[in-house]
Amino acid sequence: MIQRPRGTRDLLPPETRLWLAVETVAREVFASFGGEEIRTPVFEATELFVRSVGEGTDIVHKEMYTFPDRKGRSLTLRPEMTAGVARAWIENRLGDRSQPLRLFYLGPMFRYERMQHGRYRQFSQIGLEIIGADTPLADAELLAAMHEFFVRLGFTDLQIHLNNLGDPEDRARYQEGIRVALTPRRAELCSDCQRRLEENPLRILDCKVPACQVIAADAPGVDDVAGDPSRQHVAGVEAHLQALGIPYVRNRRLVRGLDYYLRTVFEVVSPQLGTNAVLCGGGRYDRLIADLGGPAVPGVGFAIGEDRLVEVLPARFKDAVLARAALYLVPMGAAAENRALELARGWIRGGVPVELEITGRSLKAALKRADRDGFRAVAMLGDDELKAKTVTVRDLAAGNQSAVPFADLPAWWQALPPAREAARPE
Ligand code: AMP
């Protein structure tokens, strides 16, 4: 038996309904904030990620799916989307359009992760980028759109963590500060962090090894050494969030795992998720497009991990999506079978979701199945019904049965109470 590759998943019905519903909400919310969808290739030149995500990061260092194509060009399955969006922005001269651009995306990303719950080698992200605005208001709007998305899904327990990562000019000073603070404890760090101490000390703050986290707690916070411009910027973002009543906490340890961030960085954490609690990460990247050879254009964005999001969706949202609300149309006899699809199509056009019985089940077997699979109602069509141009419908929640003229079926369906109400004993 051929099995799926490690770290990948098959998303099966009915769970795929949750994915579709979440994606629909994302598209609606982000579009209502002025967003447009962007779709970029799933693989890009390896160089793109090395130059943007950064050589000293875990992603580039050990998590990329990199392969030569048949002509020997090095390609990489995208581990994240911002680099591709920035590349597309430059390549398609999106700067010629009026700014800013609000671009959202949904799609699969690939990282060669060590296997553990909540970490997959193919996973999906939903993200939004605002490119061409450098104001605190841009960051606040981005966070407001993100917050709105979570609110629409019914979340009440998520926490936004926010930090100032400083400007690149502050970075050298800060890296040095961590190096000086942690070098005396070098031997206690994991082997990765010993390497990070030389190459990119900032990344030690990101390390998942508990001993390293304890030691990193002694390092200075970026905000302690950051210059005034970045501090004022992040203070501006905070003022907007407070005015909007969007709760957040300042987390001075937060650095994020990608090198292109500066100034505002944030994460959204779900208390339900345990060790991999981060549901969303993002921040500002004002130098990224210039670093990739484009003009100096600022940007800010986030990416939500859709796999983890679906795992912790609020029960109300889930129940509403998963409650099957279709009509099961069961034709009895050859004449009914011949008419059934045409009737079904008419009702579907009238807004009724109809699932036709197409395997030739007996009525008895069909009613059993209707119960098992949770249909809202069954419509039975036999010779008598054909003659009378009615269909015998059974409301499975209320348990009652009636005859409805073919043409009236959509109206009858729209008038059905939700299953839970119909079943409530009076
Ligand atoms: P990042 O691009 O690393 O900032 O990740 C943004 C979000 O994507 C994270 O907060 C996770 O929710 C999700 N994510 C990242 N890597 C994985 C993975 N290997 N498996 C599942 N979700 C992931």
Give a quick summary of the entry.
The protein has 426 residues and is an alpha+beta fold. The chain contains 18 helices and 16 strands. The chain folds into 2 domains: 244 residues, Bira Bifunctional Protein, Domain 2 (BirA Bifunctional Protein, domain 2), CATH 3.30.930.10; 100 residues, Anticodon-binding domain (Rossmann fold), CATH 3.40.50.
Structural account:
The protein has 18 helices and 16 strands. The protein is of the alpha+beta class and 426 residues long. It folds into 2 domains: 15-167 and 226-316, BirA Bifunctional Protein, domain 2 (2-Layer Sandwich), CATH 3.30.930; 324-423, Anticodon-binding domain (Rossmann fold, 3-Layer(aba) Sandwich). Helix 14 links the parallel strand 12 (327-331) and strand 13 (354-356).
The helix content is 40-55%
Identify the bound ligands. Answer: adenosine monophosphate
Report the sheet with the most strands, covering strand number, pairing sense and barrel closure: 8 strands, mixed
> Any idea what the radius of gyration is?
27 Å
β-strand percent reads: 15-25%
- Tell me the name of the CATH class of the largest domain: Alpha Beta
Main sheet strand line-up: 1-5-6-11-10-9-7-8
The residue-averaged pLDDT reads: 93
* CATH fourth-tier homologous superfamily of the largest domain: Bira Bifunctional Protein, Domain 2
Shape: elongated
| Span between termini | 54 Å
CATH topology of the largest domain: BirA Bifunctional Protein, domain 2
Regarding quaternary structure, how should these chains be classified? single chain
The number of helical segments is 18
Counting DSSP E segments of at least 2 residues, the number of strands comes to 16
